Sequence to fold (323 residues):
Amino acid sequence: MKKSGYIFLILFLAVTLFSPLVSLAQYSVDITAMVPGCGDGVIQSDEECDGDNLGGATCVSLGFSGGILSCRNDCTFDISSCVVTAPSRRTSGSVAHTSVVFSGQAYPGGQIILLKDGQLVFEFKTDSRGYFQTSIPGISGGNYVFALYARDINGILSLPVVFSTKVSAGLVTKIDDILIPPTISVRPISVQSGDNILISGQTVPLAEVLVDVYGSLLIKSFKMIADIQGKYLLTLNTSDLELGSYSVRSRSIIDSRLTGFSRLIDFNIIREEIIEEEEDICPPRGDFNNDCRVNIIDFSIMAYWYKRPNPPTHIDLNGDSKI
Fold:
């Protein structure tokens, strides 16, 4: 009897001591930890938002009239679903976030290019009437120079509208009622006396367009009304113009307000035997907007493609698929 009791005690101790080891061998344990940063749902000092955490911001607090604000994967605000409406007439207002809001009118179907201190911020489209509104959220207080260009439906760039602005921390600075100058194109740029020159461009829909032709002084002025798409066209007959060089530019009147001038385009009235091919007049490389000049506008176009994939072949000057 005593011997069997000892055997039972030994078996009981063996099962008690070694059964946890058997159980542990059957399972694995995964330990995970959240590293602070973008994607952890907590807004850090260098983040505007994080996931669903918008820090109380809305489209309205950023200067829009409504819409749905969301957060990008890089923890910056996504304002693509904020509502774009006609421009606000207010100049500033108190909000939780420092931002700058731009609104105005350009061309239907056009593209607005926004620069801050000479650096590209982003591009965005106008609506069907040419209105635009956008914002730079999370900007630091300070003094800035903002410039806005517009690219029309034919890819021609306007001259910039430039604002030197002080941005106050904790406020939304509104730059509104912006009127982008019209674009202009002249074809051909060399003609014989008596031939026609086509002067065209795009502006605000149904705006009154003023086209001025210069020699050494202002020679002719023309008025016309842009169509519903903001397009205008003037056929200039050169019969009463002497041989020589001329320039032309345009501007628009919207609700009794004048826009700035378009670019100044040169054309020539010359004898038949010395007409040059247009291809010889324009720079062979670097003229990305086809205005026969290479300048800061072309640089801003190239800057837009900096580090972006698949740049257009005419922008990628050395053909290495990188800007």
Q: What stands out?
A: Helices lie at 2-24, 296-304. The longest helix spans residues 2-24. The chain has two helices and 19 strands. The longest strand covers residues 244-254.
